[in-house]
Every structure is written in structure tokens, then in C-alpha cells.
Structure prediction request, 179 residues.
Amino acid sequence: ARQFEGIHSETLFGAAFTLARLRSGSSLELISDAGATYVAVPSWVVPISLTVGIILIAIALTRLRSGFSWNASVRLVAAALVALLVASPLLSPQFMLWPTPFLALHHNRKVRATAIAVSALTLIYMLGWNPGFEGDLWWVGVVNLRNLVLLVLGALTAWTVSGSQTSTGHDQPASQDPR
Prediction:
């Protein structure tokens, strides 16, 4: 069992704490464990992170229309997976692959473009990773930018779960959707 209070340094709040500590010149309070780098944070951070994910899921569920459709199911899974990534106390680059097939099938161009931006920023910081990266402001900055774009992606996927439907309640094909 872990003997510290911390979250992965690449999570929404882990990266934010690392950036704030880098900017202020204070100790980064990093912990290496099981091949991952964690950052020590106050105990309230994990519940706040989980709350953000729960809010995204709640938005998605309230936007979901009645009746079954495969397209809406794909959008709901995309929203749930992105919310999970936002809320998770552990976030590694490979986790970004989980929602990829569902985001690729999403009807909304803004969602797909934002997903590409998240992937590109993840690739940039992966290519720039090296031992001792923890003190590199540019690297922590890219991770924070990726996380902000990931949060936007979470909001977009949650909001667009309902999709665009015809008057009969059936999903329109993506080619007919002007977004």
C-alpha cells in the first residue's frame, strides 16, 4: 500500500500543483513509486478531482435523450471515458487511447478536433520526456495545457451526448449534421 498522500504528476490537479510549485520556487514534493511520478497534494484534492468527473458524467446523463441509439451510446461511452480520465488520480499517456475509437466516431467536429489536440499535446510531452523532467517548466506547461484541453473535451463530450436528432427521435447521420 502507498504510504503517501499524492496523485500522479500528469493528472489535472497533479500537474497544476507541480506548475504552481515550479513557479513559486518551492519544493516540488515529488514521489517516485512503481515506475510513476506522483506529487504530494492536500487530502482534499482527490475528492475535488472526482467531483469534476462526476459533474461531467451528470451533464452527459442529463443531456441523454430517451430511446436507444447506437450513435448516442458511442457518444455516452466517449463522455464517460473522458470524464474518467479527468477524474482519475492516475493519468498516463497510454490512457488517452481508451476513448479514441469512440471520439473518432463522434458526430461533432469540435469534439473530434479537440480530441486531436489532446492527442497532439500528449505526443509532444511524451517526445520531450526525459529523466529529470520534473523541473522543466516547458514540460509541465505542456502537460497543464493538455489537461485544460482534456477538460474542455470532457465538457464537449458531455454536452454533445444527445447529438443531433430528427423529429422522429432518430440520430441524423454525421454527414447531415452541420457541426
The two ends are 47 Å apart (CA to CA). The longest strand covers residues 36-40. The helical segments are 12-24, 45-63, 70-87, 100-104, 109-127, 137-159. Confidence is low (pLDDT under 50) at residues 165-171.
